[in-house]
Design brief:
The protein is α+β, with helices and mostly antiparallel strands and 380 residues long. It has helices at residues 7-24, 27-33, 43-51, 70-82, 89-103, 106-118, 230-235, 238-266, 278-307, 314-338, 350-358, 367-376, and strands at residues 122-125, 141-145, 148-159, 166-172, 183-189, 195-202, 205-219, 223-224, 268-269, 272-273. The protein has three domains: 7-120, Acyl-CoA dehydrogenase/oxidase, N-terminal domain (Butyryl-Coa Dehydrogenase, subunit A, domain 1, Orthogonal Bundle), CATH 1.10.540.10; 123-234, Beta Barrel (Butyryl-CoA Dehydrogenase, subunit A, domain 2); 237-376, Butyryl-CoA Dehydrogenase, subunit A, domain 3, CATH 1.20.140. The structure holds flavin-adenine dinucleotide. Flavin-adenine dinucleotide binds at residues 92, 124-127, 132-133, 157-159, 208, 359, 362-366, 368-369, 372.
């Protein structure tokens, strides 16, 4: 679909495309970079991108970044996921970095934001075994002690904690009040005493972890923002989290679509390309139309957020997350069906794209929760 991009943005898209084709354009390259699909992040490739100045795209210039807004960030995320670059650490890094940028001390900003531009990875941990969609029900506690806090409790589903520098931890510091009160954000080094990080086996490989805190000391200087105000601080980051996930998944969806079209044009049965059968051709047309609509939605909301970065676009950001992740799941599933048995074979990677998209409607707030949020904005 033709996109109205400035020359500078067109150059960025081309540069990312060239980089991905060169560095991770073949299955052999991707297998090597990801330990045969088991790891979604390759630090060496990530640092190459840092050296090109790309990872600091949304970091303020004061901290060595490019100081760009939501539009460029979404462009970068979309094109790297389209190019299948194994840099899964970037998503949580950007989410955490934005929180430090908004609420952190100058020291925290220097460490984290300058680290981002050099290719360091950050993680964020809210979810617990008993607090998923109802994340404010979390029970991991940080109790006051001399000079800081002692953290005890379990967290789960923490993406990238096994190679991140710090975890942006949300823990309960207050007693009484509503469940949204008394929550505090902390910057916890991943090598802190009393913190155990244990990988969770998933169909996507190694990317998420359980965290166990046992009397883990965090000093007062590790508090991010205001004690007790973590909930409102989290709400301020919602635009970003949903846009990031939407942009990543739209890139994957476009990739799955292009790979599917290439396959059904080539594959012949009954003496003709299978894509020429109306039952496939019409579904291809429907997917192309849906992708174009999702692209317009993403671009439009990204531009609106860029124009008013401090406004929460609850409805629109949830629409982006819902639409792009559901579409990515649909397109990869359709791709698999249209490739017949070969879609199921690891040789063609449609199955890998499907495994990547199938969980995207769960993390970062499930599709059910996004629909709930959108519904609520209509007073329902
Ligand atoms: C791969 C992966 C990476 C993740 N990364 C992180 C991370 O880095 N940091 C982090 O903190 N968390 C992370 N998460 C956690 C993620 O945000 C949660 O899994 C998600 O919010 C859903 O919580 P849950 O899995 O406990 O499901 P549950 O909340 O138990 O939901 C189960 C089902 O019930 C539905 N449901 C629940 N409540 C409602 C409701 N009110 N109305 C309608 N339906 C409802 C859900 O939509 C879902 O279908 C990650 C999860 C995964 C799988």
């Amino acid at each position: 679909m033709p996109r109205a991009l400035t020359d500078e943005r067109r150059d960025l898209v081309k540069a990312i495309g060239d980089f991905c084709r060169r560095e991770c354009g073949t299955k052999e390259q991707r297998d090597k970079l990801t330990a045969n699909g088991q790891e979604q992040h390759n630090q060496r490739l990530y640092e190459k991108m840092a050296a090109l100045g790309w990872l600091g795209i949304a970091v303020p210039e004061k901290y060595d970044g490019a100081g760009r807004g939501m539009v460029d960030l979404c462009l970068f995320l979309q094109e790297t996921s389209y190019g299948r670059a194994p840099i899964s650490g970037f998503g949580t890094t950007v989410i955490a970095a934005a929180a430090y940028d908004k609420f952190g001390t100058d020291t925290q900003k220097r460490v984290v934001l300058e680290g981002v531009t050099r290719g360091r990875v950050e993680a964020i941990s809210m979810s617990e075994p008993g607090a998923g969609s109802d994340v404010a029900a979390l029970t991991c506690r940080a109790e006051r002690t001399a000079g800081g806090y002692l953290v005890n409790g379990q967290k789960t589903w923490c993406s990238n904690a096994h190679f991140a520098d710090h975890i942006l931890l949300i823990a309960r510091t207050g007693r009484g009040g509503t469940k949204h009160e008394g929550l505090t954000q902390f910057m916890v080094p991943t090598d802190a005493d009393g913190l155990r990080i244990r990988g969770i086996d998933t169909m996507g490989g190694k990317d998420v972890n359980d965290l166990y805190f046992t009397d883990t000391f965090v000093p007062d200087s590790a508090v991010v923002g205001t004690p007790g105000q973590a909930w409102s601080q989290l709400m301020a980051g919602l635009n970003l989290e949903r846009m990031i996930l939407g942009a990543l998944m739209l890139g994957v969806a476009r990739r799955a679509f292009d790979d599917t079209v290439a396959y059904v044009r080539r594959r012949e049965q009954f003496g003709r390309a299978v894509g020429s059968f109306q039952s496939l051709k019409h579904r291809i047309a429907d997917m192309a139309t849906e992708l174009a609509c999702a692209q317009l939605l993403l671009d439009d909301v990204a531009a609106a957020i860029e124009a008013e970065p401090d406004r929460v676009f609850a409805r629109e950001a949830s629409m982006v997350k819902l639409k792009c992740t559901e579409l990515a799941k649909h397109v990869t599933l359709e791709g698999m069906q249209m490739m017949g048995g070969y879609g199921y074979a690891t040789e063609y990677e449609m199955e890998a794209l499907l495994r990547q998209t199938v969980v995207s409607t769960v993390y970062g707030g499930t599709s059910e929760i996004q629909r709930d949020i959108i519904g609520r904005t209509y007073g329902l």
